[in-house]
Amino acid sequence: MREKPFGSWTRTEEKTSYHRSKARRRLGRGTLAMLGVALILLSVGWVVADVQEVGNVGAAAAPKSEKLKLSVPKLKRVRDIPVYTGKPDDKGKLAAGALHLEDTGFPWQAGSNVYIAGHRLGYPRTKSWLVFWHLNKLQRGNKVVLEDAEGRRYEYEVFDKEVVEPNNTSVMKPVKGKSIVTLQTCTLPDYKDRLIVRAQLVPNN
User: Fold this and answer.
1) How far apart are CA 74 and CA 64, in angstroms?
2) Beta-carbon-side half-sphere exposure of residue 29 (alpha carbons within 13 Å)
3) CA distances (Å), origin 37, targets 32, 33, 45, 194
4) CATH of domain 68-201
5) How far is residue 67's CA from residue 35's CA, in Å, rounded to a whole number?
6) What counts of helices (H) and strands (E) characterise the chain?
7) Where are the domains of the chain?
8) Separation of alpha carbons 50 and 48, rounded Å
9) Can you say whether residue 181 is alpha, beta or left, with left for phi > 0 and alpha for psi between -120 and 50 degrees?
């Protein structure tokens, strides 16, 4: 019986060994590639989390109640005035103090416009009586303070004052890059237009 040449057996073994080695290298490269993708996805997740964290700076947890109190140190009549959230035509809440329009923001929300309307004249023996009578006297830099149901204070500084028509709803919209409170009342002597005072949230409050 004729033996197979030793060389032919060696070449077969070499081929098998070569293919196995090549498969191992491919497997190794595939594992490294998958590990690299996993690290990229993980780093993207960290970046997204960091961006979200930055976006949440300045926002506070919402209290259980939406009740607010309003104080304006320069205006003697505006001391711990109750602010009730409701629709623009809610005369009862407006007469009981001041009215926070329900579709506008709250002070604990970053980037919000807390829109509050109050009577110029109001009703005797109620918190609405002359509440915003001297709103026109506010100047740039004057303080406006809101307090939530948990006693947290939000201090604002006046930066703008203007008169607009009653149907101008642009003053209710948020202002990019700012957290503000907007105070609204009627103009004198005919109550025809709306006096608007805006104040920006002071940092670290």
Assistant:
1) 30
2) 6
3) 9, 6, 12, 58
4) 2.40.260.10
5) 52
6) 2, 8
7) 1-53, 68-201
8) 5
9) beta
What is the pTM (predicted TM-score) of this model?
Answer: 0.71
CA dihedral 124, 67, 87, 110 (to 10 degrees): 130
Token digits for 144?
């406006």
- For the segment 94-145, what is each residue's pLDDT rounded down to a tens digit? 999 999 999 999 999 999 999 999 999 999 999 999 999 999 999 999 999 9
- Map 106-118 to HEC letters: CCCCCCCEEEEEC
- Length of the chain (residues): 205
Closest to 68 (Cα-Cα) out of 136, 156, 163:
156
Q: Count Cβ atoms below 10 Å from residue 30 Cβ, excluding itself.
A: 10
